[in-house]
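Thread: Newbie trying to understand structure tokens

Hi all, I'm a second-year student working on a class project, and my supervisor (Dr. K.) asked me to get a predicted structure for one chain before our next meeting. I've only ever worked with sequences, so writing a 3D structure as a token string is new to me. If someone could post the tokens and maybe explain what I'm looking at, I'd be very grateful. Here's the chain:
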Amino acid sequence: MLNRRTALMLLSGSVLTPKTALAATPREITWDDLIPPGLPYSEIIGEGELDEANDTWLPVYDENGIKLNEKLNGTYIKMPGFIIPLETSAEGVTDFMLVPYVGACIHTPPPPANQLVMVNSSKPWPDDELWEPVWVTGTIRTQLQSTTLGQIGYSISADDLETYIW
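---
Reply by user tm_fold:
Sure, no problem. This is what the structure looks like when written as tokens:
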């Protein structure tokens, strides 16, 4: 037989509900994880056009370049990359593209859409550290979008930014 206090605690859920919630642990991913399983990296870039006179190469991205890993949609992740700033203020950069290597999108051609991530962060990244690799932690979404810098396949609402240490 339950006493009155125990019965009230059970009814109120205070016995069954923990007082503090554990923080979510992000899944650490790499750029390869952005490519759908079973699709080799070599199949997201076509032959392209080589212009030896101007020392440029324009890859041809076929439909494999815009295929996204839908299993990541809505996942809380942590991934490394480099910043291409889109919005800067006195406090730093809050909107940027996360790219797999230094200078991607600045030097043409941009990587394929499934290798570019649009990031929005409430925590600004300092302007004087734009060449540093970063860890971005947040929820990733599959979201194909076109910009003047290239077609982008993913977006992250960032909870945290920190320097990536090799």
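A couple of things are worth pointing out once you decode it. The longest helix spans residues 4-12. The chain has one helix and eight strands. Feel free to ask follow-ups in this thread.
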